[in-house]
Design brief:
The chain has about 210 residues and is of the alpha/beta class. The protein has helices spanning about 15-25, 40, 75-85; strands at about 5-10, 30-35, 50, 65-70, 90, 95, 100, 105, 110, 115-120, 125, 130, 135, 140, 145-150, 155, 160, 165, 170, 175-180, 185, 190, 200, 205-210. The protein has 2 domains: about 5-90, 3-Layer(aba) Sandwich (Rossmann fold), CATH 3.40.50; about 95-200, Hexapeptide repeat proteins (UDP N-Acetylglucosamine Acyltransferase, domain 1). The radius of gyration is 17 Å and the shape is globular. The chain starts with 5 loop residues before the first strand and ends with a strand.
């Protein structure tokens, strides 16, 4: 991340507003602007300026840090990869009330929201969302472009594969592997390593359908 004072947030929906609020609480950026293709629909719902469509991000490459505030993991990944290909700067946002170990590793384009916990030895790769009050315990590896929803609890030593989305209130026991592009429903309790591209529901969680 460069020492820019402007933050460009791509995506001005509800998630984007929470990202902007997080950035404002951090206090580093003097200017926060949004880019979104739904300008007319969203312009009166934001406390911040919606400056143009998503494609206009190229106009800010040399003057701003970027964060992609889109919940869809694949779309978020695509935009982040386009931005990094230009060597533009990705922000990393950690809410002041989050508890993040100085012995963890937080990648670019990551947002860690209010009251979340990331413990010692944990690694959070590029473009992940660690949402409100989620906990990532010691020595976990959350691979790129995952969404860890509000209230998720991940025990120690867990690997969460790329593009996975753990639904609100899910729990994951220690030292298992969540395969790439796993999704879990609200409140799922994952007690075994998962198969890729599957939706898991229940307690204990079981695969209910393929995602491809």
């Amino acid at each position: 991340m460069k020492n820019n004072n402007t933050l460009v947030i791509i995506g001005a929906g509800g998630h984007g507003l929470v990202v902007a609020d997080c950035a404002e609480n951090i206090g580093h950026y003097s200017k926060i602007i949004f880019l979104d293709d739904c300008l007319e629909k969203l312009k009166n719902k934001s406390h911040w300026t919606i400056a143009g469509p998503i494609a206009s991000w190229v106009n800010y490459c040399d003057s701003a840090d970027f964060i992609v505030a889109i919940g869809n993991n694949a779309l978020r990944a695509s935009l982040l990869q386009q931005i990094t290909a230009t060597k533009s700067s990705l922000a990393t946002l950690i809410h002041p009330t989050a508890c993040v170990s100085k012995h963890s590793n937080i990648g670019p384009g990551v947002v860690v929201f209010a009251n979340a916990v990331v413990n010692i030895g944990a690694r959070i790769d590029e473009g992940c969302i660690i949402n409100t009050s989620a906990t990532v315990d010691h020595d976990c590896h959350i691979q790129a472009y995952c969404h860890i929803s509000p209230g998720v609890n991940i025990a120690g030593g867990v690997i969460v594969g790329k593009f996975s989305w753990l639904g609100i209130g899910s729990s994951v026991i220690e030292y298992i592997t969540i395969a790439q592009n796993t999704q879990s429903g609200a409140g799922a309790v994952i007690t075994k390593s998962t198969q890729s591209n599957k939706l898991y529901l229940g307690a204990p969680a079981a695969p209910v359908r393929s995602l491809i």
